[in-house]
Amino acid sequence: MPANVGLYTVQATFPQTENYASFQALANFEILGPKDLQVAWGAQRTFEYNKMVQSPTATARDGSTDISLHISGTQSAAGTHSIMAIITDETLRRRYTLLNNTADYEITKRPLRSYFRTNLPDFDFNSDTLWVPTEVFADSVALTRILNQIISYEGFATNTETSESDNAENSLKGTPSISLEYEVAAARSPMLLPRRTETTQKATAIISPEGFSADNYSLNIRHITVMETADLEGSAAERISCRRESYCTELSRAVCDFIDGTAEQSCAAFGISCLIGSRCVNGVHRDECAGIGGQATESCQAATPILQQSYGRDLSRPSPPLYYNLKGTPLGTQKPTTPGVYIEKRGKYMRKIAVR
Predict the structure, then answer these.
(1) How far is it, in rounded angstroms, from Cα 200 to Cα 188?
(2) Cα–Cα distance between 129 and 223 in angstroms, integer?
(3) How many angstroms separate the CA atoms of 7 and 152, rounded?
């Protein structure tokens, strides 16, 4: 019997027997080719990465009959992909020739949102702002090192079928670059945080995707506000002289350990005194001082009236407290009553206090 497409004639012959004469019959028949069947693809050709297999839909109908299709080549990763529709039933595949059975589609990278997250003492954060203590705010080298270690991300995808989620360790390559821009903020009411109060000094941490890459994620430039905070009365954490290479400043022990600093007896042997606005920090590298808009000075005691030592007084008597505003203007010996942040000085010791 023929198998190829075409018109054929078949002949049947009955041989002669003792009781019957021979007989012949002819019949014509045609072997038809597979029927053309058009595949209709769904309109959506672009998808955002979600850790799931995604692709356009495909349908085919012969009259009122739906023909079941399988889509081969589907992907879950970001990129441009090609797929093919195949009739699911093997018997039906011989009856039809699928037209328009391939398509291209794209899975775009999923955007991530970067921010800073930390459990360091005297730090606080939300998705757009990081609050840091004064001694860290004034030390941009330490602050930048900390920022590079506490960067976090939100927006990772989860496979809803397996409950598996992406994370920074298995999905990201490299780290974004972080730069700091210091500025003087306009005066405003301080914001009270747990054990600390926000001052008007701020900087902007710029997170750039330079140095960052990911197969399935994208990262846009982010600007995070970094606010300086001062200790509320009685809330100051222990400070130590902390050295990192040629930089030495007073930091909390937890922060010093976090940035792999080394505790020293004193920062006097390292760096210079740096006057930043109305405040002065010892042990800052000269280049670092210039980089944050500071001015190198012989000593912090000579640079600000707050730190001037008193001479000729009776040392046997306790020093009365002196109060100053954050610009260093003397306010007298009476504790201020107007809400705000002030500096209290007793002899050679001083601290910031918040009046509420």
Answers:
(1) 7
(2) 9
(3) 73
CB 241 within 8 A of CB 264: yes
Q: CB within 8 A of 215, min separation 6: which ones? A: 77, 78, 171
Residues 288-318, buried b or exposed e (16+ Cβ, 10 A)? bbeebebeebeebbebbebbeeeeeeeeeee
Question: Alpha-carbon distance 15 to 183, whole Å?
Answer: 111
Q: Are 207 and 174 in contact (CB under 8 A)?
A: no
Q: Tell me if 171 sits within 8 A of 208, measured CB to CB.
A: no
Q: What angle do CA 213, 119, 216 make, to 5 degrees?
A: 20
> 236 Cβ partners below 8 Å, 6+ apart?
351
Residue 131 vs residues 177, 201, 244: alpha-carbon distances, Å: 20, 11, 22
DSSP 305: G
Which pLDDT band holds residue 314 (cuts at 50, 70, 90)? very low
Q: Which two tokens stand for residue 19?
A: 């009781």
Closest-CA residue to 284 (of 239, 245, 332, 334): 245
Alpha carbon of residue 107 to chain centroid: 21
Task: Tell me if residue 258 falls in helix, strand or coil.
Answer: helix
* pTM for the structure as a whole: 0.64
Please state, in angstroms and rounded to a whole number, the distance separating the CA atoms of residues 340 and 342. Answer: 7
Is the model more confident about 86 or about 233? Answer: 86
Distance CA 167, CA 48 (A): 17
Cα–Cα distance between 283 and 281 in angstroms, integer?
7
Q: What is the CA radius of gyration of the chain?
A: 39
CA 287 to CA 296: how far, in whole Å?
9
| pLDDT tops 70 at residue 346 | no
Distance CA 185, CA 188 (A): 8
User: How distant, in Å, are the alpha carbons of 29, 95, 97, 139 from that of 100?
Assistant: 31, 16, 10, 64
